[in-house]
């Protein structure tokens, strides 16, 4: 068993880490950190638990410590659910001697930090060596993308491998849990929606191309097609829905698009990693799916569900589809855990 | 005063007609029709009133009649809020001797029936003459587009007049009122959304190009750029939100796009029609607007509110914006009324 | 293994029966019935599956039959998720030769039909003998109460056994799933609530007293305190919340009330029935619990969660509390299954 | 015209004050105060406007000042929408030389401060003289009750005058706007409700009896029946719904209860005050009304709408009904304004 800690363990993503790691066959939670206000308390006392499933017995009595490397020991991996500004300061400190699998955005676009979805670009883990050399660390940082980006990129990867993508437009309808428990006031979401999520569009546009790029000589060259996003918050608890429009250079038909996504597997499936879904992308044929409440928990929340693949009327090389992905499982905690499982297996 | 009737007066759009016509300076409601089940009852007894404002006193005692031309007389204009299949049968019967301003989709794409947004293509009213000749009617039918199409096209029209549009992608987040009172079960919309609205995408794609086309020798040639829509139902009572992506042939800048929309006016503004908003498109600068609950009632629900106009990162001839339009006012009853006001003024 | 069938298997409660019975150690689903429209189809094809968990593999290929005893054989128990009017006709036919565990309201208040919550009044099962003699049936019907009543009565039973209850007032905030998938239009529930549920108040008032009554010489004498209910539908998917006010003859203190409920167990716990929760009533101490989304799944949805037990300011023999119970698990399918488990164990 | 100021003008209740006062025939807004962060800015720049109606032109350019009596002059009346802790400090300072009509709870239960609903207990304004003598002020403070209390008490007052009330139980379903814009996270309210509102139950229980009490020799003796409340937050934007159970000493019938409430008028109606609704209580007969979205705007939000008046099955002196009142109009800003109108008329 590998001893793991969770940085920022009391927040919404922190709680998902705990839920997903509780019965994990390889990882054993031995440390939980939070802000100084919570440090010194039992986890149960420090936390307002938000998830539908109950707080696991195994963590209730763990004493929360300050988010500081000196407060933990005997840890192999730390999972980071820290806010971006804290992550920027603290993750490098942990990386001196720990493996950091981070969901925070702070370090994602650093040249020598792998931004990885295991099914998409596991080879970027080669940057670890560069990173350790550059920075003189014994540990390292590996990051996963933003929640909306992960779901989108899992569906684009098989298409990108087979077809020549020219432009991608994506309009998101994102769940309120993505903003944290207090992130979206109910006044903003009852009989309403909010057509703006800070920095979300930029992340989707940048990270997607980065993930589909090429790593050569320690440098990532992003993919070169256009990505344009419009992001919206809607009255859904969990599960991001995305309407995707894709222009390709050459014609294809709907069945090809569907089967290309449905048949997609990657290294986690090959290695049979514990959190790897059998199918990263599940394609449904009903005319009114995917729906977030119905489809977010597909494969324990680790699969993206796609539906309504259809060709444009006027152009046979343009396609549309709708996807749903669980934003705090596949889009956050589950993403970091899958990264850690891959690292644990291959390094 | 012009005597008007409302066909399908007890439903949701029928109620909006009544609300909007109650204090109208030129139109006077003298007949209300509904299905046989309601015929013979006072309107108040026949109707479950759904709107926030109270049922106007003026219609409470009107006895509802069957939707049949023989049941009404002394009517100049009939507004149709009928479902499509009923409209297909009944509207032509009314058109023998009445002006029919219809919100139904049944006759919209008939070659000789004007599909009109007064600010966009008032010249299509020339088809009335063709229609009357073709069909031997003394009256005629004029239709307005689908709710989502109206809002979209009002924003595209000024851009289309000035720039060379190549492709438009639109992803809608539509209010539940658009499906009628019983149209969307709450089980489908609480903590959920539905990524499908029957025939909606087809209507947007077809009607938008038709509205922006050219009428020559009695024949409409639709505009020729590509339109691709993805339609979704969300937990909002009234007000459709649309995320629009637009590719143009040539570069522009955000200020040009914004001012082109903000400065747009058409014939209804010139003629100072009663229901014409001062600005068909209102452009807001806040980063998180438009929002349906906040913006749907702009200019009494007759303006479309646009925000978040922004250029694509990679391509300076690609733009995005978000719009909100009131689906049962500007998108339905108000659209038919504005058509009737224009006809009343110019014919 | 006992072979069981589900009458009305395609609806919302029917689906819960399937979900709960799928892994059941004693019951084996061998027949599914529905209306003639579905008969002859595979269950997967006949059903729009509404639950968050996926349709179990085991039932996908079962061919749905008409709801008629001649269509099934080799069945020991049939679970009824039929609407009341169908149940009134069909359940007696099934009861000639089958055990019918029914969630329908049709037969609940018949003199010789046991209305049972296993923790509350298992002795009412003695009515089975009376029923079989009266009606000449080889099988029999056992019913469970209405969803709101079950949750309320589980909390009242321990109090009733220990204290002298004078009056109970209950105000419910009920989930939309209780009305069936199409029962509540979203127009009625977004930014709104509906303060009326047909016959619900009557059921709570009658059934609660019946359940807490005495069976003597084959006749149930209901409990004699007053119950007064006000029922409301709110924008929650699953889980009924009830605000309970209780007047007792004598003083008590909050701790006594809490411990009396928390310590309550009944025959299902003694017999260790498969679906019996360890604690039928779970008492929480947080000031803002229970909440439906957080607490409806307690003990797999079979426990009622109580919180906010507090004394009235002016009267020390008056108390208030709030409860949450899962309306389609403990309040419907799970209730019938627990009845069947009890019958299977003791008869 | 009377010059008025609004303390705490940028918040939700402050905005309602502005909306309601904008076209007021007697009151003229000349000062707006807020926290130091906003002081010095134009109101339009200092405020995120939350209401459906647009910010009135008349206030956009008013420069917001610090909430301090030295910052304003030429004011006759100040309306207070301050949070309770700020109100406790600042309102007495303003009261030295101004009339303060406050919606804050800070001073409500002070012995010499009138807590008034104009239709219910206008005679409590006699306390003003006591207050001025006690405190040596030239001005004074008048308060209105908590939002839920106002709606409840308006319905109880006519019943209390005619019948002998023994006990009142009330279960509220309150709108999220009552907690301020950021008060209720959407994570707490989507597919959920929260059965707790801090100090709300205590306010209802205390203020209701205080309002229905007797003022003699400068001392209020509260009414002596029992009031017991259970308060819950639900997914509604505006409009509190309350389920009321009332035990009386003697029998009555439903028609008496209904007509007693429907016929109720008070001093504001007699004096024909500008904001006074024709009927403080509107009684509806539909089985499923009142509903918050449908009924909150009755008489511009100044009437309480009652429905479902029904007798208890077992006891003919026990009744139930449901009420809806607009929490930020009749329950807050409108209440303070009506108080000020009464003072302006009679003092």
TrEMBL record, chains A, B, C, D:
<dbReference type="GO" id="GO:0019877">
    <property type="term" value="P:diaminopimelate biosynthetic process"/>
</dbReference>
<feature type="binding site">
    <location>
        <begin position="177"/>
        <end position="178"/>
    </location>
    <ligand>
        <name>NADP(+)</name>
    </ligand>
</feature>
<dbReference type="GO" id="GO:0004073">
    <property type="term" value="F:aspartate-semialdehyde dehydrogenase activity"/>
</dbReference>
<feature type="binding site">
    <location>
        <position position="174"/>
    </location>
    <ligand>
        <name>substrate</name>
    </ligand>
</feature>
<dbReference type="InterPro" id="IPR012280">
    <property type="entry name" value="Semialdhyde_DH_dimer_dom"/>
</dbReference>
<feature type="binding site">
    <location>
        <position position="200"/>
    </location>
    <ligand>
        <name>substrate</name>
    </ligand>
</feature>
<comment type="pathway">
    <text>Amino-acid biosynthesis; L-lysine biosynthesis via DAP pathway; (S)-tetrahydrodipicolinate from L-aspartate: step 2/4.</text>
</comment>
<feature type="binding site">
    <location>
        <begin position="327"/>
        <end position="328"/>
    </location>
    <ligand>
        <name>NADP(+)</name>
    </ligand>
</feature>
<dbReference type="GO" id="GO:0050661">
    <property type="term" value="F:NADP binding"/>
</dbReference>
<dbReference type="InterPro" id="IPR005676">
    <property type="entry name" value="Asp_semi-ald_DH_pep-lack"/>
</dbReference>
<keyword id="KW-0486">Methionine biosynthesis</keyword>
<dbReference type="GO" id="GO:0009089">
    <property type="term" value="P:lysine biosynthetic process via diaminopimelate"/>
</dbReference>
<protein>
    <recommendedName>
        <fullName>Aspartate-semialdehyde dehydrogenase</fullName>
        <ecNumber>1.2.1.11</ecNumber>
    </recommendedName>
</protein>
<feature type="binding site">
    <location>
        <position position="203"/>
    </location>
    <ligand>
        <name>phosphate</name>
    </ligand>
</feature>
<keyword id="KW-0560">Oxidoreductase</keyword>
<keyword id="KW-0521">NADP</keyword>
<keyword id="KW-0220">Diaminopimelate biosynthesis</keyword>
<comment type="function">
    <text>Catalyzes the NADPH-dependent formation of L-aspartate-semialdehyde (L-ASA) by the reductive dephosphorylation of L-aspartyl-4-phosphate.</text>
</comment>
<dbReference type="GO" id="GO:0051287">
    <property type="term" value="F:NAD binding"/>
</dbReference>
<keyword id="KW-0457">Lysine biosynthesis</keyword>
<dbReference type="Pfam" id="PF01118">
    <property type="entry name" value="Semialdhyde_dh"/>
</dbReference>
<comment type="similarity">
    <text>Belongs to the aspartate-semialdehyde dehydrogenase family.</text>
</comment>
<comment type="subunit">
    <text>Homodimer.</text>
</comment>
<feature type="binding site">
    <location>
        <begin position="37"/>
        <end position="38"/>
    </location>
    <ligand>
        <name>NADP(+)</name>
    </ligand>
</feature>
<dbReference type="InterPro" id="IPR000319">
    <property type="entry name" value="Asp-semialdehyde_DH_CS"/>
</dbReference>
<dbReference type="InterPro" id="IPR036291">
    <property type="entry name" value="NAD(P)-bd_dom_sf"/>
</dbReference>
<feature type="binding site">
    <location>
        <position position="233"/>
    </location>
    <ligand>
        <name>substrate</name>
    </ligand>
</feature>
<feature type="binding site">
    <location>
        <position position="108"/>
    </location>
    <ligand>
        <name>phosphate</name>
    </ligand>
</feature>
<dbReference type="InterPro" id="IPR000534">
    <property type="entry name" value="Semialdehyde_DH_NAD-bd"/>
</dbReference>
<keyword id="KW-0028">Amino-acid biosynthesis</keyword>
<dbReference type="GO" id="GO:0046983">
    <property type="term" value="F:protein dimerization activity"/>
</dbReference>
<dbReference type="InterPro" id="IPR012080">
    <property type="entry name" value="Asp_semialdehyde_DH"/>
</dbReference>
<feature type="domain" description="Semialdehyde dehydrogenase NAD-binding">
    <location>
        <begin position="3"/>
        <end position="128"/>
    </location>
</feature>
<dbReference type="Pfam" id="PF02774">
    <property type="entry name" value="Semialdhyde_dhC"/>
</dbReference>
<keyword id="KW-0791">Threonine biosynthesis</keyword>
<comment type="pathway">
    <text>Amino-acid biosynthesis; L-methionine biosynthesis via de novo pathway; L-homoserine from L-aspartate: step 2/3.</text>
</comment>
<feature type="active site" description="Proton acceptor">
    <location>
        <position position="240"/>
    </location>
</feature>
<dbReference type="GO" id="GO:0071266">
    <property type="term" value="P:'de novo' L-methionine biosynthetic process"/>
</dbReference>
<dbReference type="GO" id="GO:0009088">
    <property type="term" value="P:threonine biosynthetic process"/>
</dbReference>
<feature type="binding site">
    <location>
        <begin position="10"/>
        <end position="13"/>
    </location>
    <ligand>
        <name>NADP(+)</name>
    </ligand>
</feature>
<feature type="active site" description="Acyl-thioester intermediate">
    <location>
        <position position="147"/>
    </location>
</feature>
<dbReference type="InterPro" id="IPR051823">
    <property type="entry name" value="ASADH-related"/>
</dbReference>
